[in-house]
Amino acid sequence: MKIKNSRADVVFLSVIYFIILVILIITLYPLLYALSASFSDPMAIVDGSISVYPVGFNLTSYKVVLTNPDIVSGYLNAILYTVLGTLINLVMTTLGAYPLSRNDFMGRNVLTIFFSITMFFSGGMVPTYLVYRKLGLYNNLWVMILPGAVSVWNMILMRTYFQNSIPKELSEAASIDGCSETGALLKIILPLSKPILAVLVMYYGVGHWNAYFNAMIYLNDRWRFPLQLIIREILLKDNMTGMSGMDSGVTVGQMLLSEGIKYAVIVVASVPMLILYPFLQKYFAKGVIVGAIKG
Amino acid sequence: MATQSSPLVQTQKTHSVKKRIPARMKKNWELYLMILPVVAYFVLFQYLPMYGVQIAFKDFLAVKGIWGSPWIGLKHFMRFFRSYQFPVLIRNTIGISVYEILVGFPFPIILALIINEMRNGRFKNITQTATYAPHFLSVVVLCGMVVESLSATGIVNSVVQSFGGTPVYFMTEPSWFKTIYVFSGIWQNSGYDSIIYIAALAGIDVQLYEAAVVDGASKFKRLIHITLPGIVPTATIMFILKMGRIMSVGFTKVFLLQNDLNLSSSEVISTYVYKKGLLGSEFSFASAVDLFNAVINLVLLVTVNKISKKVGETSLW
Amino acid sequence: MKKTKLLSLILSAAVTAATLAGCGGTNQSSQPQSQNASLAGSAGNESEENANIPDYLNATGFPIVNTPITLTAMVSQNEAQPQWSEILVWQEYEKMSGITIDWDCILSSSISEKRGLALASDQLPDMFYRSSMSETEMLKYGQQGYFLDLSQGMIDQYAPNFKSIIENFEDVRKGIPTAEGQIYAFPGLSNTWPVEVNPKLFLNQKWLKAVGKSSPTTTDEFYEVLKAFKGTDCNGNGKSDEIPLSSTSLANILRILRGAWGLGTRGFGNENFDIAPNGDFRFIPASNEYKEQLEYLNKLYTEGLLDQQIFTIDSKTLLAQNEAEQVGCFAFTNVGAVASSNASDFAGLGTALKGPHGDQLYAAVRGHIATKTGMLITKECQHPEAAVRWIDYFYGDEGAELIYAGVEGQTYTKDSNGRCTIVSEYTTIPEGSSFDKVFSVVSPWAGGGLPAISNERVFQGAEIHEVAAKEAEAVKQYAPEELWAPFSFTLDESSQKADLESDLNSYISQKRAEFIQGKTPLSEFDNYVKEMKSMGLDDYIQLYKTAYERYQKN
Fold it and tell me: ∠ at Cα B171 (B167, B172), nearest 5°?
């Protein structure tokens, strides 16, 4: 349906597009730098001669990264943890958010407080470690998926969405039809919740993809490590607090190698997430609700 | 316009609450069943380990375990409060968070609104992906880039000098620290944070727009009267949640941007605890500081939540 | 949960008791004793100890054990290294000793958490090997019975190499025991002088020629040379981009120049303390001489002679500056790690600079101890004697050769002086790799801090390369006669020290940067000292003094 633009509209749109252009330049320049650096001679990175394009173009950094068996296995593990983890996240978060969004659900405030407290207080690393080990969560797949199955923050976001973006008429229509709660949830609410589901896939997915802490603490076998844990070693080695007076044990060659690898590794690690978002963007389209009401 | 339950419906419910409680619970048994696994998760994974909070009041000796270690009451807390740096830490931590909220909060919203106005689907997708990409640049690389570009020979000073100015040593000026921290964060996270707002915008009834157009409202008017109100509940919740994290300024980024000269502005609670811990496994002390942070955060959250309840319809509970 | 805890506590206690009992020697008390007695072993115990050698063990020679055993070890793995089981040195040593090590290789970025958790949750390996453990951790857990106290006869009986080191090196003997006389760890040691001189001052000889000056011998001459560097287009690029003096940190600059004001008379083992000329125990950052040094550095900075980026600089930036040939003089432990294409322009200063009062001290030196917490044997270890024998090899010449250079003929050749040179197979670096990566297949050295003792014959780091080694030799005569090992503190003292130190160090770092930069004028120095006193400086000094007096008695 075409809407004719008034004069005011044209001005408005121009301003918008100008701002977008500025945003894009500011956003993209450093990313372009990182991309160029990943294809450059590490020495050029160190002495600052890269501005926009690669200097001393070479693929060595990528070669080192892509032939590193730890990185390859890290990649596969990250995919596994992310897919499985996000699936569980979606199910659990929905199971929590839907009841909480219902005004007639008794105890919703008590439960909300019950959940929210965990955002503030935690037992700390040692007790959590001891409990998880007792639960059998050590050095296996589950320790990467079960902890964090529900994020209170995300659950509240979903609850807010259910409360504000699903027309009340629909949920009432469901109960009149004699639909069970589960039925209502599956057949009516969820199809209308594509935007928030897409958000959860994004937020949880990225969360899993970037996660390293539990892997660091609970995983022992190198072949189970997710990508981020491997990368962290490469990225942080400069900043490890060393002890002065010790022989450094590292030469220029290694320093340069690490410099180059840093950027290649980031590019390689970001690709899946950068592909995921455009893929989900269609679920953020406007007018998702319209069809349902008219129907 | 409103799709939330109307006040009228609410009042009707309160009158019949007393009679209906058991009946309502029975009617909603499926909902209770649904939320059961979630509750179980929290009990097992979050509440069970909470017994460890007592470490904050104990002198943790590994050989005696958490239960067996001796109580020392508030000693760790006193150590923390009495530290010479305590006022500086509080000032910097809260200062950074407040700055972040005041300045950084609107950006994802504005970005979402702008993207919402875009017509060309392709261009829109590209913009969304482009603004969201910086989130994946590791904080280590980000800080490296920030320090480099703000150095005396970096890009920013080159621009300053080409306009005839004198170079500014941004990184070693304490007064610049918070700005650098917050704006680099805005650059990195606005796109990612805007996703939830984009989703909220997608949930606004399109018919409202159509009706407004028919009434002759300009794009700008539609923005103010339909779009903004549609995003207010989400924004409010986000705001409340963020207020509940004021004391939690993360460690890595601050640590990487710190140097000897900007410490008066850049030393925060997390970096202080880290430096203390360097001298060895100070689990109890760290736990006490965490508890302190948690209490402050909780108080703030509850306060803001109460205010939000009074002012509008949206609140956490 | 409580029952299992109790049970595991009882079990741990039983194991600890059994282990300690099996250690030999009847001295179980942890009362402070005279060090010489506990280390040398009192005569009365010896016959009993000899009778206690376990059956599985050979008291001397190889193999160490008659039937092969396996020990578990947690180790911090450097990014250049493969899994430690693949390293040639360990494979060779396993054949020799009959002991297989099950290495739990932890990435160095995770070692703090992993180690801390292992200790706090009582999930211990048999040994901690190069695990970045802090001294406080060692003491805290050691006193809870987690680590074997080696001073109770273990060293006497099973560690002859280490024992002779203790007897020959005073700072090791005095520095290793805890405040109460226990020895919980085998330290990381060096007997490589160029490594112990850190940093060194390297002067750009090309630039020196270009400005027509001779190598400076006093701080005034040094200032003149730097000024000349600044005023001349030394790198011939038409730009005034010369950086006369730089380093990888401000701390390096302070450390290397302070000898010219007589500061640091006992080396940098205890960085902020030394003995003043009048014999007083001195806290350096509050002294007048320190103020004078700051004035000098402030002069250098404001005149553009000291790198304006010194407050935020790191080794990568220094390397970049050298690539652009912008550096006239820099302070670092070697040339190879921070200069590449212009590396040959640099030579060591050749002397210690004489200061305004005639002091000509080279203070940037430490004793033999690189780290006190190299290798620790835990209460889980069922074969502690074997573990001690296993590690002791590396404190002798043969072991040092093995761990730093590999297998003779296969990975290195020895010349007539005994100097080990790595064969070309490991010095040709393929693209996308580095020497560290290539050689890490042979030796576990990458990352440093090995519980062993290096020496000039076997050490392969850049410190041993000609320019750095020559400089180290040249300044030897100006180095302090006595070099302090880092002092040991009791747990209580450590806790107090930690509190005071984090506040004081922050303040000192901040203020010295401000003084040098000029942000705070040096007239404020007295206020700065007063402020430190209000932070508890006097208590802090007293803590160190007590530790020092204890150290002296060792």
Answer: 90
Domains of chain C, each with CATH number or no CATH: 15-28+47-196+370-457 (3.40.190.10), 200-364+485-553 (3.40.190.10)
Instruction: Please report residues of B whose CB lies closer than 8 A to that of A204.
Output: none
> Is C79 close to A234, i.e. CB distance below 8 A?
yes
Give φ, ψ of C530 to 5 degrees: -60, -45
How far is B84 from chain A, CA to nearest CA, in Å?
Answer: 24
- Are B62 and C122 an interchain contact pair (Cβ–Cβ within 8 Å)? yes
CA distance B82 to chain A (A): 23
Residue among B281, B284, B285, B287 with most chain C CBs within 10 A, to mutate: B281
Measured CA distances, C311 to A258, B109, C528 (Å): 24, 38, 20
* Spatial distance between the Cα atoms of C115 and C121, rounded to a whole number of angstroms: 10
A102: DSSP letter:
-
| Closest of C251, C235, C240 to residue C322, by C-alpha | C235
C-alpha to C-alpha distances, C54 to C21, C146, C151, nearest whole angstrom: 12, 22, 18
Interface of A with B in 173-192 (CB under 8 A): 180-182, 185
Q: C191 - beta bridge partners?
A: C455
Report the complex ipTM.
0.85
**Cβ neighbours of C164 (radius 10 Å):** 12
Q: Which residues contact B291 (CB under 8 A, 6 or more apart)?
A: A121, B53, B56
**Touching chains, A (3+ CB pairs < 8 A):** B, C
CB C537 within 8 A of CB C283: yes
For chain B, the average pLDDT equals 86
Of A129, A249, A259, the CB nearest to C121: A129
CA quadruple C343, C347, C349, C350: dihedral positive or negative?
A: positive
Q: Flag if B30 and A180 touch (Cβ within 8 Å).
A: yes
* Closest residue by Cα to residue B156 from B169, B141, B144, B138: B169
Sequence-distant (6+) residues with CB within 8 A of B68 are: B61, C5, C9
What are the structural domains, with CATH classification, of chain B?
A: 74-311 (1.10.3720.10)
- Cβ-Cβ contacts under 8 Å between B and C: the total is 97
CATH number, span A62-239+249-294: 1.10.3720.10
Q: How many beta-carbon pairs under 8 angstroms link A with C?
A: 132
Across the 554 residues of chain C, what is the mean pLDDT of every consecutive 10-residue run?
42 37 35 37 44 82 92 93 94 95 92 90 94 92 94 93 95 94 95 93 94 94 95 88 94 95 95 94 96 97 94 87 92 89 92 95 95 96 95 95 94 92 88 84 91 93 87 95 94 89 91 94 96 95 96 90
The Cα of C161 is separated from the nearest Cα of chain A by a number of Å equal to 22
**For chain A, which residues make up each domain, given as ranges?**
62-239+249-294
Q: How far, in Å, are B78, B185, B269 from residue B249 at the CA level?
A: 21, 12, 8
Note which residues in 212-271 of chain B have CB less than 8 A from chain A. Answer: 213, 218-220, 230, 233-234, 237-238, 241, 244, 255-256
Instruction: Specify the pLDDT at position B175.
Output: 93
- Per-residue pLDDT reduced to its tens digit, B209-225: 888 888 888 878 888 88
Tell if the CB–CB gap between C117 and A250 is shorter than 8 Å.
no
Report CB contact under 8 Å: A237, C324.
no
Q: With 90 as the cut, is the pLDDT of residue A290 above it? A: no
Q: Which residues contact A8 (CB under 8 A, 6 or more apart)?
A: B218, B219, B220
Q: What's this model's pTM, rounded to 2 decimal places?
A: 0.85
Q: How far apart are CA C466 and CA C339, in angstroms?
A: 14
Q: What angle do CA A65, A71, A75 make, to 5 degrees?
A: 125
- pLDDT tens for C178-197 read 999 999 999 999 999 999 99
